[in-house]
Amino acid sequence: MDITTNTLSKGKITATIAMILSLSVYYVSTVGWHQLPFVFAVTFVALLIDGYWLNRLLNGFVIGYASSTKVGKDLDTYLNQSLRFKALYWLLKDELSVLFYALFAKHFKTPAASDRCFTYDKASNAKDMFWVVFIAQLPTLPFIHFMMDNIGHPLAAWLVTVLTLWSVFYYYAQIEAIRHRPIEVTDTHLLFRFGLSWSADIPLSDVVEIKALTPSDKFDHFSHFVSPMGSQKNVLMTFEQPIKFIGRYGFYKKRSHAVISVDAPQELIQVFTKIQNISM
Predict the structure, then answer these.
(1) Which residues partner with 183 through β-bridges?
(2) For residue 142, which of 207, 212, 230, 235 sits 20 to 30 Å off, Cα-Cα?
């Protein structure tokens, strides 16, 4: 795995210098130089947190799991152990996962293909969603920031800018998370994953029916769990009792039906049917 702290640090320092120079030119040209101390202070604090905590956290994962082929599971386990306090884990794990998948996941191997491991990166259309968000938001962001700053709302301008950049960052991380977090079938559970967005450990005994979705099948977001927007939804599942689908920040849905995306729906159905027949 070709990843080192020095290389990452140089990249961060270069990006930070470029950002500071760009901001300096922008604020001086708009006679807004009085905001520069605030921007520099925030940048300095962020670099301190990054250098003394995030890098150390990353190094621990890189050293301990350098050859991992199940990054999704190992990252969750590592963060749970490293953050120690359960409240801190639930507060930060989502954002740390976004940073990891966006910046570092590409240096790790994806899970090996098997007859019980199913990808959904093609069905998810994650790259298309990223480019839609990128093209829709970034070109207009400088104008929105300048307009809000110009009418006397600099803090609001920065809040909108940061949230917009983070949303683009998130959708980029989603591409890698989808590659590293496949759907898996064990002897007892279907481990549903959809990148950073959703997860559920579904007992096979609770699955009443699984079939390929047809145009005549009707579904909605109130009665069904539906794969996120932009996905090619191709498998319909019915459960004996409501299943808990867990999202970000502790948000969850309980549904008795699900419409999910997978690159090989027929293979998933065949494996599921085979396991059910064996257990009967």
Answers:
(1) 118
(2) 230
pLDDT of amino acid 243: 96
Number of CB atoms found within 10 A of residue 252's CB: 11
Tokens of 90: 């639930």
Please, are residues 266 and 123 in contact by the beta-carbon 8 Å criterion? Answer: no
- Main-chain dihedrals φ then ψ at residue 214, nearest 5 degrees: -115, 160
Q: Which of 210, 185, 205, 190 is nearest to 280 (CA)?
A: 205
Query: Quick one: CA torsion of 204, 208, 214, 216, rounded to 10 degrees?
Result: -160
What's this model's pTM, rounded to 2 decimal places?
0.78
Q: What is the model's pLDDT at position 64?
A: 77
pLDDT reported for residue 257: 96
Residue 40 pLDDT: 66
3-state secondary structure of 10: helix
Residue 256 in contact with residue 241, Cβ under 8 Å? yes
Considering only the C-alpha atoms of the chain, give the largest distance between any 2 of them, rounded to a whole number of Å.
Answer: 75
The list of the chain residues with pLDDT below 50 reads 1-5, 31, 280
| Alpha-carbon distances of 267 from 116, 199, 207, 263, 270, rounded to whole Å | 9, 20, 17, 9, 5
DSSP 192-260: EEETTTEEEEEEGGGEEEEEE--TT----TTTEEEPPTT----EEEEEEEEEEEE-GGG-EEEEEEEEE
Residue extents of the structural domains in the chain? 183-279
Question: Which pLDDT belongs to residue 31?
Answer: 46
Pairwise CA distance, residues 261 & 183, whole Å:
10
| Torsion, CA 114, CA 120, CA 123, CA 126, rounded to 10 | -140
Give residue 175's pLDDT: 93
Q: What is the CA radius of gyration of the chain?
A: 22
